[in-house]
């Protein structure tokens, strides 16, 4: 089970020292409620008809409103709001809690799982939501490859799924599967989706409102403009407090921050250090800076290929040489990335799983770690036969100067800044680097037309999904098909470890296997995790009175493993009693910004605490 304790890195020790000193000075009282704005806040942002609207600025396009196709973080975050999963994650510590299922029970051999489906879930069109809907969703993914694009790894091991009655779902497995209480698959209404013909092209974005059973209902969508949602008044846990939720698209992060300052939006994620510092002293704005659930990495194209063995794309052949990948790894100063690019709002990258997920967090041993050592990088290339010409340029095995291209998200200033450092670091080795910053990197990435790319994923409390995208099974069936692969890695040793961890129910043994997987991924050099960025975000306290973070201590608001933030948000002009939502035990109470130990902005000096596809800077899920 995933825990909540973070490793004692120097970065986090500084946080604890700050909290202790702030508490001693009276700036922070643990368990107290800190004011979230002036005594007489500005009027709540409302629509012309008086409705209270919560507007969230986003910088990532929607890849699809179909839960069967969507992989980008913004899309999957919206699907968490519109559809129930069998289980959810408690906002306090991410342990599994009831969702569409109220309970679950494995057989003695753990090959048959029986879920009790709640009786009080209703589709937004008034039809009852039943076990039949869940069985149909899973069976569709099992029988139609086009319905398994986004989440097929969860059902690949399913042998049979049935619904003997409306309240009972039975899943029979081919072999043990450790993710049975972490199936992050949106359940869709059978009576709507059984009418769909081609799942590969149906984006679920033409008929509104979209039928769902989550806390919100999607009511409207305009490409690269907005997604609008309204509260689902019949949601079993209780309806959200705002009258409307809008995800508004901003291509430029500065424009989103300006909109936040003017009160045109209520919340803005993914702030740069400069933006966070500027907003820290602005009236009615609260900055939240917390350890994140994502990583920022360099991904290497190992040679794009399909399951049928067909090679495609134009990735550099030299990157298939482990020596070249290692040399590039040795010439990346991850400490500089954290200090100079993220300006301390991150932790140095090591393994694939961020330190927030302590049981799975892995660090290389002293002898295994590839540290920043340009001299060693040059020796690695020399020994592998990549010498220099008269102009000091590295020469490949084909006799041509060695140079690479790197895909960069045009809207991500971190990509651009790191790219300049890479040009400097690798340039000293005699290797050229062309930075290709595009609004849409998805097309060349899927076509294999790249050498390296800036990569990033959100990691769930159960890491199975982000591990699955590097297996051979995730490759596209043919070059024309869409696979779930991240960057075409196919390594038999990796696959063997992945299969073992999937079938391991013992938490400690499984965690050890997950660490071995990360070790193998690290040693291959296909992924260089440079940093684990903090979740740096801000919201207007004259719009939002309180909102749930995840996890309880120093948690994020954007891109949660659940719907807690937007479901729990209370308008600034609304009087409430008790917790942010309805029933549901600890999962309903959550944590409020301003209550407990979540500190988001420091004193007058402006010092701040701690300083899903690929079309923008945001990670995927």
Automatic annotation (TrEMBL):
Transmembrane segments: 587-610
Pfam families attached to this UniProt entry: SBP_bac_5
Predominant location category: other
Localisation: Cell envelope
Keyword check for Cell membrane: no
Single GO biological process annotation from the record: peptide transport
Keywords recorded for this protein, A-Z: Membrane, Signal, Transmembrane, Transmembrane helix, Transport
Gene3D superfamilies, per the entry: Dipeptide-binding Protein, Domain 3 (3.10.105.10), Periplasmic binding protein-like II (3.40.190.10)
GO cellular component: ATP-binding cassette (ABC) transporter complex; cell envelope; periplasmic space
GO molecular function: peptide transmembrane transporter activity
Protein name (database record): ABC transporter substrate-binding protein
Source organism (scientific name): Streptomyces paludis
Lineage, uppermost ranks: Bacteria, Bacillati, Actinomycetota, Actinomycetes, Kitasatosporales
